[in-house]
Design a protein that fits this description.
The structure is a homotetramer of 216-residue chains. Helices cover 61% and strands 0% of the residues of chain A. The first copy, chain A, contains 8 helices and no strands. In chain A, α1 crosses α5 (116-124). Chains in contact: A-B, C-D. The C-D interface holds C 39-41, 43-44, 124, 127-128, 165-166, 168-170, 172-173, 175-177, 179-181, 183-185, 194, 198-199, 202-203, 205-207, 209-211, 215-216 and D 39-41, 43-44, 124, 127-128, 165-166, 168-170, 172-173, 175-177, 179-181, 183-185, 194, 198-199, 202-203, 205-207, 209-211, 215-216. Chain A binds a DNA duplex (21 and 21 nucleotides) through residues 19-25, 46-48, 56-60, 62-63, 66-68.
DNA sequence: GATGAATGAGTTTTCATTCAT
DNA sequence: CATGAATGAAAACTCATTCAT
């Protein structure tokens, strides 16, 4: 079942020179911010660089966000919304715990791979938020963890997931593995690399084989 | 079998003499740099902040390193040296591939957990190096990967490691899991958290159960 | 004797038609500008803030004035016109110097109190004008001073105002006292504060008692 | 009795070119800040302009203060300290209320005239402070007012100050007059202007004649 | 070794103003 | 009239680095 959420880059329209462009650059700003920030990290990314890539003066960017931190927040917020929605969609399937967990991993992993850059920011840059925004993002992370945690516990209780390992360690193992998918070999254009489907399949297989009851 | 490599923060010995003091100060600079950088990230860490924690004016830090980047390099270099040594020590045991790999994972993971902050920097801040230093650190990372990769391949060849999954994916899975150990639940002082040994045991168990031949 | 000049904020009439609306908006811009500028000062007031209060986007404000400085100039100009008119009206009464001066103080003070915010700007923000506008406003201030100064001199010459103090010092004393009336205690709604009439009476009494010939 | 407090500008040492100057520019920074801010107002004063006058790059100024607002605070704080000290010195003379008040006015006025620029900032720029600093400065202003207010009340009670006018209005009148002394005609170099002593004498005479009991 | 004033180039952010729609 | 994207210049502030003392 295909997941419908999409966050790909807006199509790069040609600038036709004549009139000063008035289109909405909101998506473009976010996209370029994601690209630079995921490559260099939030702190090492300058507003100047984003502006250069968008093709406006740096002051102009402040029409699209009120501060660099708010820009980061919006990127993270969108990731949270997407993954939350996936979580809800999987929940609606009403599967038994282990199948539920594996489907959750599968779809979330697909999203992470399709949105590698955004996901990277989601996982690594929360510490650059402050105050209210930081608290909220931390809360989101906890929700994400709780979703997995609850499924692991349920699987242990109905005997489908091994219970010789503490639920919290298993949860962290699963989330950590998903976090790292972005670094699994997949440079497109390289000779023999892997498609997102192959990576997801491998990850789900490995996780399933390690947590299934009776593994030990 | 205990691993002898130690990189913990220098014990806060009382200043009992010039020599000791000087020695401590040098270590202290590195230690505080590691502490701040692992918390805030390299780019968001200011020399001022390190100086404040060391208890010295920021100009004075330049007696201990020649640039912020060189400081980062030294931190990463030391991590490389430690993990390389571990790799060599395990190699000297002359174990069969799977056992060799698991022992490698075990000891390296122990080091990562004992040196959480330094390891975090090692894994995330290489992109802040430039030129020669960047190239060298990239090379070290490749060496680290190659060590694991070779063992996986050997294990697949002698039939002890599953070969239905590409060697590169399995390698990335293993390394990724090790990378993430620092975030496994372990706040010391908290009531029911986990010691480093428990975490390592769990990680090795999970990895072993997922990559062993015959899992599928 | 009631003074007829009125510069109070336009009453918040309901928008009952195009014409009325347009008229209101124009006044509203001035009124809000006066409110913000008197509170924060001209330099610390942003066009954005005025626009927010008017309920219009900042670009739209430029339909009502051509520059921030021109807006300030108009505010000051109106103050000058009002006080000039008062000065002329009092002159038309044809009173002897001391009585003339006191009536001038009385009516001008009433205007200052009724237009506290505008008067504040009139007295403190002239330095933010430049070029021609600055010169003109300075000239207005000089005219204001000259009006008082001439009356003081005349009073000294006919023996009704003390002449042991230089006319210029007395003039500055009078003007300075009027300038400060806006800070005399008068928060409306507070229990025992003072009405504008009481403040004016007190000020005129104090000034009269201090400058009358025979005081020493 | 002469007041000993002095805040004049530091002597302008010649820069003798040879070595980069390492002297303490703290006073110089404050002095130039006072000069520019009193002329243009806090908000219209740029750090750049102060730096230009001090002769350093603008970034270097941040060795002397941590923010523009803190710089303003320090200027205002010093004014408060000076005027507080004067108030205490006069209090120690143990004079009857009216004499006490007039001596207070005399000495404080002298300070205002000798420190025209600083006093101007003290009276007009408090609104540019924020948070804790703003609260503290407001408190200082209230203390200043309370000092005068208490003397007026005491004078009314022992019958030496007129009591037909409310104590609060008289207090504001006095403070307002002192505030305005800086604009009394005194440009040095101009032909027939006035020395500080003459201005203070005139002000004390005018105030005394207006508030003394029996004036009416 | 340590200091701390100074640099110089950078950062994020603000803001009056313009103008095509 | 009103919009709102964009400008361009300047603002406050940061920071790695240098260096005379």
């Amino acid at each position: 079942m295909a997941v419908s959420i999409q966050s790909e880059k807006a199509p790069p329209e040609e600038k036709n020179g004549k009139t000063r462009e008035r289109r909405n650059r909101n998506d473009s700003v976010i996209d370029e911010a994601i690209a630079v920030m995921s490559e260099k990290g939030y702190a090492a990314t300058s507003i100047q660089e984003i502006a250069d890539r968008v093709g406006v003066l740096k002051g102009s960017l402040y029409h699209y966000f009120s501060s660099k931190e708010e820009l980061l927040f919006r990127i993270i917020e969108k990731s949270h919304q997407d993954t939350s929605r996936i979580s809800a969609e999987v929940g609606a399937l009403d599967l038994p715990p282990l199948e539920h967990l594996l489907e959750h991993i599968r779809r979330t992993s697909e999203w992470f791979l399709r949105n590698r850059e955004r996901a990277h920011i989601y996982f690594t840059e929360v510490r650059n938020l402050s105050g209210e925004r930081h608290a909220e993002a931390i809360q989101w992370g906890r929700m994400f963890e709780t979703d997995v945690s609850a499924l692991v516990t349920a699987g242990q209780e109905n005997g489908t997931i091994r219970d010789d390992l503490d639920q919290r360690l298993v949860t962290r193992y699963i989330i950590g593995t998903m976090n790292n998918l972005r670094s699994w070999p997949s440079r497109p254009g390289s000779k023999k690399q892997f498609g997102n489907d192959q990576i997801v399949d491998a990850a789900v297989t490995l996780i399933a084989d390690s947590i299934r009851a009776g593994s030990d």
